[in-house]
């Protein structure tokens, strides 16, 4: 977790947290995207991805989401 925290710290503008729009596109500071028509989606999740659990839980929407998990 410390590595992930460091990655966010160097990526986000100083003083920002993970609710910044670049990090959390559906968070409390995000624009309302509910009216957009999203296409069906295919998500690839790598076995060593640090955010593996996050990517495996798509938000409920009227979009079909397929998840392909790759393990080596």
UniProtKB/TrEMBL annotation:
Gene3D superfamilies attached to this UniProt entry: alpha/beta hydrolase
Coiled-coil region(s): none
First and last residue of the signal peptide: none
Alpha/beta hydrolase fold-3 domain segment(s): 3-57
Gene Ontology molecular functions: hydrolase activity
Name of a matching Pfam family: Abhydrolase_3
InterPro entries listed in its UniProt record: AB_hydrolase_3 (IPR013094), AB_hydrolase_fold (IPR029058)
Similarity comment text for this entry: Belongs to the 'GDXG' lipolytic enzyme family.
Protein name: Putative carboxylesterase 18-like protein
Organism: Trifolium pratense
């Amino acid at each position: 977790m410390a590595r992930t925290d460091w990655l966010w710290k160097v990526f986000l503008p100083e003083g920002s947290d993970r609710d910044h729009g670049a990090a959390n596109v559906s968070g409390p500071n995000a624009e309302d995207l509910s009216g957009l028509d999203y296409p069906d989606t295919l998500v690839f999740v790598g076995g060593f991805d640090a955010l593996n659990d996050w990517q495996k839980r798509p938000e409920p929407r009227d979009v079909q989401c397929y998840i392909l998990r790759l393990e080596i």
